[in-house]
Specification:
The complex is a heterodimer. Chain A contains 14 helices and 15 strands. By secondary structure, chain A is α/β, with parallel strands linked by helices. In chain A, helix 2 links the parallel strand 1 and strand 2. About 2% of the residues of chain A have low confidence. Chain B is mainly α. In chain B, helix 1 packs antiparallel against helix 10 and helix 3 packs antiparallel against helix 8. Chain B is globular and about 60 Å long. Classes of the chains: A alpha/beta, B mainly alpha. At the A-B interface, strand 7, helix 7, helix 8 and helix 9 of A face helix 1, helix 9 and helix 10 of B.
Chain lengths: 400, 295
């Protein structure tokens, strides 16, 4: 009897221990972004959906990982973002922070992540400072940055004959830096900047500025603005017959959801650079259809970036067998060859910059477009080495 | 050819015209505010949100019911107006005997709620609304390309502004209205239904906002923040024109649109603040506003 009891206890223990062993890596991911403001559509709940899909597709549970996802709204304010980040690391035991649009918030999160040895997978923010002036060994800047957009759109349009540029610049730090980045690329490719106008931010009516751009005789009007400002300036450029008269518009920061908001009738012919478009190949289409079903709109590159960076992160955690040491995980990610279903071949450089192809797209005409979300045709692709800025010596963490 | 401060006259003419177009929106919106303030003494902070609602109703009519721009130009303001009447009956009417501040706080809260609801359901990116086919394209005026739709905006707003001014200042109904603001008890004693008149006036004032929203839908992005950005400027216009002055609101609306347009040529960075600078100067020199009666 006693013997039987011992045996059955042992069997029972073995039975319960097996799944417990399989679940021994616990990972907590925090998606921090704008859930109610101007960037809510480009990141927001869509990014949370993307992270959840990554956990599903990675088959985390079967791989012995117990992954939990939490999310919060940073309201585009660095102080609120910092507070949430600290609480997540100190109290809630978060291992990695995802997304974080709005560069000012992202820069704050990068610092706190480095202090806490967490991992910061950046998708929504675009500042090049994240892998340059403020590079951190625990940051991975996955999707895009302003330099890659300027390189893509600026170089391609200048080489295609758009030698004279006029900039409509949102009058704050972001707009000026975007203009500066793009001007450099334009001039390096043999173009010239014939004029610019600083537009107060935010602004509703761009007609006066568009008329100045029209009068400048430029081939290309560069829109160094974002969000609603970009949407309104494109809408009004079409109204004033600017694109029809032969001047090209270059949106320097624009996402699929913005183009969708404009409609192809208005946005047709617009050039823009992105890292991902849902309709690129069978894999992106299959993934995007699932995303559409879960979220109700097609994914943009930020949301796709959250998915892909989470997949790569989970792979690194699985290899290491623990999610505790952030720097070790990021080093692992840098050492891996990543073959991603959405971004193709990705390597994470020693400074944390993820290198992958960027694509120059042109918005389809209403005749070419076959559906609500049929928005882009691909013009060319730019390799990661060309698209992103070269690494700074002081950010080479492989030597530290 | 003469040039003014290095700006050729064609450019200047173009900018004057553009200023007039923007002024049209200011005029229609500030007119609604002035009517509501002049006759109800309510500082209607929900005006921007209702302007936005007008644009959204036009979008919904098109996308859910297939009702196009022209019918929407009448139906959308009507719907917004009815919504305004509901607000007036259920909430605002309880505040008339209190300080202005209560009406302001209530309408401000309403504005946030309306905006939040639209943001929740339609997101922040905005929705497309095409220019009606009859008005697409434009005319080359020599000095600039004038989109037909913008020309229509100016015509429509001048008509609406003039009709409103005429109704309030020159007709018997308008006389009742003005009398009712002076002394509601006495006018009521003559058998005029004052609460009904006040209710309809509020409905009409916000319908004007809805009308401006429909006018704006094809040129600005239809998004939940479109009213929030405009309302502060429009309040400045009303203050400059003189709180409650109908003619003041109309004339100041067009005038400031033009001033803003010119600033965009000579000092673009300052175009967002020029109206507020003017407001500060007017308040210092003539606190009752350019067209206001002495308070």
């Amino acid at each position: 009897m006693t013997k039987n009891l011992v045996i059955s206890t042992a069997v029972f223990a073995a039975m319960t221990a097996a799944p417990a062993l399989a679940q021994d890596i616990s990972v907590k991911l925090g998606v921090l972004n704008d859930r109610s403001g101007v960037y809510a559509d480009l990141s927001g709940e869509g990014s949370v959906v993307a992270a959840r899909m990554a956990v599903e597709d990675f088959k985390a549970a079967e791989n012995g990982m117990n992954v939990e996802i939490i999310s919060a709204d940073h309201q585009n304010k660095p102080d609120i973002g910092s507070n949430i980040t600290r609480q997540w690391y100190d109290v809630d035991g978060v291992n990695a922070i995802l997304d974080v649009p709005t560069s000012s918030v992202a820069l704050a999160v990068a610092d706190i992540t480095a202090e806490n040895n967490g991992v910061f997978l950046i998708s929504g923010a675009g500042s090049t400072a994240l892998t340059r002036e403020q590079c951190r060994p625990t940051s991975v800047h996955w999707t895009y940055d302003t330099a890659s957009l300027a390189n893509g759109t600026g170089a391609a349009l200048t080489n295609a004959g758009g030698k004279k540029w006029f900039f409509m610049t949102a009058d704050y730090a972001f707009g000026h830096s975007l203009e500066e980045n793009t001007s450099a690329v334009v001039e390096a490719n043999g173009g010239e900047v014939v004029g610019q106008v600083n537009v107060p931010f935010p602004n509703q009516d761009f007609s006066s500025f568009l008329l100045q751009a029209q009068g400048s005789g430029a081939d290309v009007i560069g829109l160094a603005n974002a969000g609603g400002d970009t949407v309104n300036s494109i809408k009004q450029a079409s109204e004033f017959g600017i694109t029809q008269a032969g001047q090209k518009l270059a949106a320097l920061l624009m996402f699929t959801n913005d183009v969708h908001a404009l409609g192809v009738q208005t946005a047709q012919g617009l050039s823009l650079t992105e890292a991902f478009y849902w309709d690129q190949n069978d894999e992106t289409r299959a993934w995007s259809d699932r995303f559409m079903e879960a979220h109700g709109s097609m994914p943009n590159m930020v949301q796709a970036g959250v998915y892909s960076s989470t997949m790569a992160y989970l792979a690194a955690v699985k290899e290491l067998g623990s999610a505790e040491d952030g720097k070790a995980i990021v080093d692992k990610m840098k050492a891996m060859d990543i073959e991603d279903p959405l971004f193709g071949k990705v390597t994470v450089r020693a400074d944390g910059r993820a290198l992958h192809d960027m694509y120059l797209f042109e918005v389809k005409t209403p005749d070419e477009s076959t559906g609500e979300w049929d928005l882009y045709k691909e013009i060319s692709s730019i390799s990661g080495e060309e698209a992103f800025l070269p690494m700074l010596e002081e950010c080479d963490f492989s030597k530290k | 050819m003469f040039e003014l401060l290095g700006v050729p006259p064609q450019v200047l003419l173009g900018q004057l015209l553009l200023g007039l177009i923007n002024g049209s929106f200011y005029a229609v919106l500030s007119l609604g505010l002035a009517v509501i303030f002049g006759l109800l003494n309510i500082i209607n902070f929900a005006h921007g949100a209702l302007y936005m609602a007008g644009a959204f109703v036009a979008w919904m009519l098109l996308n859910y019911l297939g009702i196009g721009y022209w019918p929407a130009l009448f139906v959308a303001p009507l719907i917004v107006g009815v919504f305004g009447v509901v607000i007036e009956r259920t909430m605002l009417s309880r505040l008339y005997h209190l300080d202005h501040l209560y009406g302001l706080l209530l309408t401000f809260g309403l504005a946030l709620i309306i905006q939040g609801l639209f943001r929740n359901y339609y997101g922040i990116s905005g929705l497309p609304y095409q220019i009606p086919a009859v008005l697409s394209g434009g005319q080359n005026l020599g000095f600039m390309f004038l989109p037909n739709y913008r020309a229509w905006v100016v015509v429509a707003s001048v008509l609406v502004c003039f009709a409103t001014w005429f109704a309030i200042e020159k007709t018997r109904l308008g006389a009742y209205l003005r009398a009712a603001t002076e002394n509601p008890t006495l006018v009521g004693a003559f058998g005029v239904n004052v609460p009904l008149m006040v209710m309809l006036t509020y409905g009409f004032g916000v319908a004007l906002a809805g009308f401006a929203g429909v006018l704006a839908a094809p040129i600005y992005s239809v998004n939940p923040t479109m009213g929030e950005q405009l309302i502060i400027v429009v309040f400045a216009v009303v203050v400059i024109g003189g709180m409650g002055s109908i003619m003041g609101a109309i004339v100041t609306g067009y005038m400031l649109g033009i001033v803003e347009g010119l600033t965009r040529v000579f000092y673009p960075e300052g175009s967002a603040v020029v109206i507020f600078v003017i407001m500060a100067i007017v308040l210092m020199i003539k606190p009752e506003g350019l067209f206001g009666r002495t308070a």
